[in-house]
Amino acid sequence: MNPIRAIEFNEDKLHIIDQTKLPLLEEYIITDDFERVALAIERLEVRGAPAIGIAAAYGLSLSVKNAKSNLQQIFMNAFERLKRTRPTAINLFYALDEMKKVFNEHRTDENIYKILIKKAIEIHNNDIEMCDLIGKNGLKVFAKKSRVLTHCNTGALATGGDGTALNIIKHAFEQGLVELVYVDETRPLLQGSRLTAWELEKAGIPFVINTDSSAAMLMKEGEVDLVITGADRIVLNGDTANKIGTYNLAVLCKHHNIPFYVAAPSTSIDEKSQTGNEIKIELRNRKELFEIQDTKITSTDYDAYCPAFDITPNDLITAIITERAVFYPPYKF
Ligand code: MRU
Predict the structure, then answer these.
(1) Per-residue pLDDT, 294
(2) Catalytic residue among 212, 232, 239, 310
């Protein structure tokens, strides 16, 4: 079976599987327009911290594909546009900054487009490697055949490779270490019930979808042995931003004495921030709470609270798994 790939770069075009349509429709956005890439990131057609960074790197390269003059202005305009798409996932800024360094070194080279694409492919390939290593490193946290609960989608759809937290679950399943996966549906955009479920089904891993609010009950009934989630940004003290609802899970784990793990590549570590207070949390449009796939479910006149992420304090995290190691507190990455 072909591996799932959220993003592919073929024949000078970016191919993005439209994650707003999955799992009911498998459609692709095929573009060589950086503005279309920016829109795809904003609309969550491509999503997940590593995948956002990779898409932005290709998008930025495409901005100079047909440019003959004013390259600096065209590149910086695309850079600023892509930078504004989503504020929390640090991978986006990491990838854009890497691309800018390469642009600045080679801006007068007539092959600048090819040079930028080469760098975007390198960022993509590095992510594939980091996913593999995270998958393997994460096996260390499985003491026995376990029932794992996860949140949002941290699989192939969220990365350039096979995923982070979900890739650990896939590796552990192959080793006979996973009995069942509880999939938080992940309101409001349902990355769990739509995307994680789709990936687990394809991988033949047994799973059950639960409403986010059922996690406490599951834990109380002794149904969950460990929780693994991903991260959009990890700061130096280990505080971690991830999909809204992750903090709830960590609090619940503490209460029920269940280990709570975070898995992410080093490109999700924000080396400039010391604590979670420095992380900017994205607020989404209230429409996302009031409509499901364009069907209204309540009055759109109501007010709503719609953060896309929350911050889990480091003292609730048992360990952080990266491609380099499994880090335990106090965190020194
Ligand atoms: O809003 P999303 O779907 O982009 O949020 C994604 C998450 O919160 C993931 O857990 C995180 O990006 C890690 S993906 C490997």
Answers:
(1) 87
(2) 232
